Amino acid sequence: MSTRYWKFPAGYATIYWNHILIRKVGTSMPLDPSRPLLFDGAFGTYYYSLTGDEAPCELANLTSPDTVLRIHREYLAAGARAVKTNTFAANPVSLPDPEQLSRVIEAGWSLAERAAKETGARVFADIGGNNAETAPGDYLAVAERFLELGAREFLFETLASFDEVLPALGLIRERVPGATVFVSFAVSQDGYSRRGHYCRVLLEAAENCPLVDAAGFNCACGPSHMANLLRNLGPCRKPLIAMPNSGYPSSINGRVLFEDNAGYFAQKLAALYEAGAEILGGCCGTTPRHITLAAEALAAAARPAGTGLPGPSVPGPGAAAPGGGRPGARRKTIAVELDPPFDYDCSFILSASAELRRGGVDFITVTDSPLSRTRADSLMTAAKIRREAGIEVLPHISCRDKNHIALRAGLLGAAFEGISHVLVVTGDPPTQTESRGRDGVFHLSSFDLISYIHSMNTEVFAKNPFVVGGALNVNAVNFPRELERAKKKLSLGASALFTQPIFSDAAVENFLTARRELDCRLFAGILPVAGYKNALFLINEVSGIEIPPQVVEALRDKTLEEAAKISIAYSAGIARRVYDAADGFYIMTPLRKIAIVHGLIEEIRREET
Predict the structure, then answer these.
(1) 57 marked as part of a ligand binding site
(2) Of the four listed, 13, 321, 359, 592, which is most buried by Cβ atoms within 10 Å?
(3) Is 283 assigned a ligand-binding role in the annotation?
(4) Positive or negative, the Cα torsion across 427, 432, 433, 439?
(5) Where do the record's region annotations for Disordered lie (predicted)?
């Protein structure tokens, strides 16, 4: 197996995509609109129901080829006109041994070809979703192996995003201009993928790509919810794919099982066809019996003339976000960061918020369990501050330990409370990672979460959209790379950036560079340290903090009052250096020392005219 595509250089997707755009794309095998193309059902769940084997079913291509062949034949006998190779999870992440992976793919292709020849069915090289950082290169390598075996029809399924498959699609078109390429996304009942992309945005990206012949959805949803999503898509320019799960699983005696609902599934699949889907099949929980009854229902289904699915179109992630652009006002916006309590006593954060409001602060930013130490929920704390202290809030939302369901639920609750600003952060990693099961769960990246909220702004929060802020690390060693990340955040829907604490000359210069290159509201992060011990802790135990040695040494052996004066003077000096370039200041409260924050705010306000 060739390995020249395994290491995937940054930016290669864009270069390859631009190259392919100028190539003539061949014509794929046409679809008959009067007769849907029916795929098989779920290989993995059906294989498990037959064998009880909990190992990846793809390995059965090598260890139990007769079983694999039997399953293919059962689906084809049930009425499927297209069969997928048993290679959904055959990728370098699930099967890291390149030689084993190559053999699994080859055996999977051979077995599907053998079964299909008996009925004249079409064989699609099945390439499943991959959420690893190496996904673009992985897709490319797997596609190359299938091309070596002679594959001419491809299904990329259960995808959470689109850009990552572009290099593989380009390779397929370059090698076989007339290849057939289907792309299918996995979205939940609310229409979002696990990477936070809305279904309409994903489908539009695939439809606008000349490398794709058909696009749609599979997995994650049951047939009823998928039908609801299709009704709201709007007109589709390419053949539409719909391959829902049989329903939703149940946990019985510790085993996750799908109930036998083949008759219901068949009727829903026919409804999906009548709603506009031309390519149908089943995902998790669907068996040969589901496909048998689906084939019968589809044969009897009537396709309405002029089937168009009118509905709203969601703008892509590059659309303008609310709150963008620099204000013309001279007065700087000031946001002050407070940490929620470790317990249920919120008296300090409420009194401090009220005091800061009286001192002219515009926003209270509320952290989300910094350093991975559990604190009160940032959104609930922010809502209480807004209600009882009477000041606007900017809660942090971290990606750590929340899937898209929890994140969506939190945003809906925040909207109930009138919160309209959020700061998206990745979240600090767990402090204990050596023990199994203690790694943090990062379901979405900060990029994904920004895009997710941006999509919700157009779908759910259209009347009162969230203003989304992101983080900018001015202390990054490779600051040009950090700037590229910042630009990506802005393109996905962020309209303001808040920097890490600025202490050094290099951080000041990076901030000024960011001002010249970024078109957004830019807030300068200032952290006035509380004293010598606090400074030592920050530079030694908190990632990304760099305090000049002379500042740390100046705090040694000073009283709290003396240290406060030194800290305020130094922080005010930093603020003056970036004042003209900043839209506002993001002041982090050191160890509950509100007096230090007040002192710094007074210095900043003196600069205003």
Answers:
(1) no
(2) 321
(3) yes
(4) negative
(5) 306-330
For 496-509, write each residue's pLDDT tens digit. Answer: 999 999 988 999 99
- The sign one gets for the Cα dihedral 366, 370, 372, 374 is negative
Amino acid at 106: E
- Residues contacting residue 373 through CB under 8 Å, at least 6 positions apart: 342, 431
398, 470 in Cβ contact below 8 A?
no
Region label for 461, one of left (φ > 0), alpha (ψ between -120 and 50) or beta (otherwise): alpha
248: nearest Cα among 261, 263, 238, 229? 261
In what helix (H) or strand (E) does residue 166 lie, and over which residues does it extend?
Answer: helix 166-175
Residue of 150 and 370 predicted with greater confidence: 150
pTM over 0.85? The answer is: no
Whether residue 427 contacts residue 442, with contact meaning beta carbons closer than 8 Å, is answered with: yes
Report all structural domains of the chain as residue ranges with CATH numbers, in order of start.
32-300 (3.20.20.330), 333-432+439-606 (3.20.20.220)
What's the rounded mean pLDDT across residues 462-468?
Answer: 92
The more confidently predicted of residues 462 and 248 is 462
pLDDT in tens, 104-156: 999 999 999 999 999 999 999 999 998 888 999 999 999 999 999 999 999 99
411-439 core/surface letters (b: 16 or more CB in 10 A; e: else): beebbeeebbbbbbbbbbebeeeeeeeee
Cross-strand bridge partners of residue 125:
154
Residue 236 annotated as part of some ligand binding site? no
